[in-house]
Amino acid sequence: MSSLQETDAEVFDIIRREKMRQEYRLELIASENFTSTAVMEAQGSILTNKYAEGYPGRRYYGGCVNVDVIEELARNRTKELFEVEHANVQPHSGTQANMAVYFSVLDPGATYMGMDLAHGGHLSMGHPKNFSGKIYKVVPYSVSRENHRIDYDVVRDLAIKHRPGMIIAGASAYPRIIDYSIFASIAREVDAVLMADIAHIAGLIVAGLHPSPAPYADFITTTTHKTLRGPRGGIVMCKQRWASVLDSCIFPGMQGGPLMHVIAAKAVALKEASTPDFRDYQKRVVRNARVLAEELMNHGFRIVSGGTDNHLVLVDLTDKGVNGAQAQEILESAGITVNKNTIPFDPLPPGKASGIRIGTPAITTRNMGTKEMGLIASWISQALANGSNESVLTKIGNNVREMCESFPLYLNVQDGV
Ligand code: DSN
Question: Whose CA is nearest to atom 4 of ligand 1?
Answer without folding.
Answer: 31
